[in-house]
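Bug report (template v2)

What were you trying to do?
Predict the complex of my protein with zinc ion.

What happened?
Run completed; filing so the output is reviewed.

Input:
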Amino acid sequence: MQEDNNLLKEVDSILKELFPICRSISGPGLRETLSFLNSISPFEIKSFKSGTEFYDWEIPKEWSIKDAYIKDQNGNRVVDFKESNLHVVNYSIPVQGKFPYDELKNKIHTLPNLPDAIPYRTSYYNNDWGFCMTHNAFLSLDPEMVYEVQIDSQLEIGEINYGETFLEGKGGKEIIFTTYPCHPSLGNDNLSGVVLWVLLLRELKKKKLRNNYTFVIHPETIGAIAYIATNEEKILNLDGGFVLSTVAGPGKFGIKKTFLGNSFLDKAIELSLKKLNLESVFYPFDPDAGSDERQYSSPYFKIPMTSICKDKYFEYDFYHTSADNLDFISAKSLLESMNFYLDVINTIERDRVYVSLNQKCEPMLGKRNLYPKVGGQLKQKSNDNKSKESDWDTKLKAINWLMYLCDGENSLIDISKQINIDFDILSEVAKQLSDKKLLQEIN
Ligand code: ZN
């Protein structure tokens, strides 16, 4: 419990430390974020140079910003980047000048339906500029006034930074964990995912692993595309992965399914949901609406990628607004997502494929001490000595189905899902059957 409390406090302080940084797909905010995460659990920090082409894309110039404002004629900052980095359209080109209201208003983004929130807007590839403000503040601008505008930003040849590390298991599946650290001061999307990424990395480093895990943190879309293009062979070799995004909201879990819909990851998640007794909403893969699974699951690579979210992106009102802040998310919710992820990882770590060594009729269980000494009591409705017998019922159900379904192709996850027996029990019984030479582990 003490440990839980310490972790809660730690996560809370990491969130507070990272939230204010003005991040983007490149620049000092991105580097600062990566180097802070690196101090929590080390990984390699690398870069893609501006101007390098990857598939249909090109790494843009690096963006940095010192200050930005709109001043009224009395010298008051009516919009001030120093109060919120969302006030400037991310990647705005530098601008300085005086603009009458009628001209300036076309450069201002607001949310009439959420009039006290500042929207988050970007202009990565358009050489444009703009401001974002609350709709209520916008309404109080004076249509007769000429405003002084400055965006003190720079776009120059530089780099896009990303982080990567590899955790080697004894030999199992190839799994990838990705996330994107390119959003400025926004909580659930995606500071939460970034923090969960580094916590899971730190946690998995402590374990003896069977699967191989790649952890990569790159800006969304352009970072994913550049990373995939530089690692084609490795990506083609992946069995599946997770995009860590929006994991610390107050609402329900939302599961973004893989494009297959029934991969081992989809099944493992459903087993954990049931075991942990959690409620969730499911969303299908959609190339038109999603995060970096759009790249990893693209037709050439077809890697099944999934996301366990808590208040999934697009689905909550505060998405991409200043109201997605530290009041909206919590360390507690983030740790609930982490527990969910760890349970799923635990399942895929213990997943195995067996083949039956006794395929001609049923094996004689009694002589292997796998059958109750007194026969006739199993599945008997009138027997009220329940507890002992129901253990046997469950165990024998597991044994009989394992002997029937272990064909060298079905894995324990498949079987657990198919016959509705808890994965932990199934995995334990399969080990016993393997010790008794009734099953042979082949994978
Ligand atoms: Zn986003």
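What did the reviewer find?
The CA atoms of residues 39 and 93 lie 32 Å apart. DSSP finds 13 helices and 19 strands in the chain.
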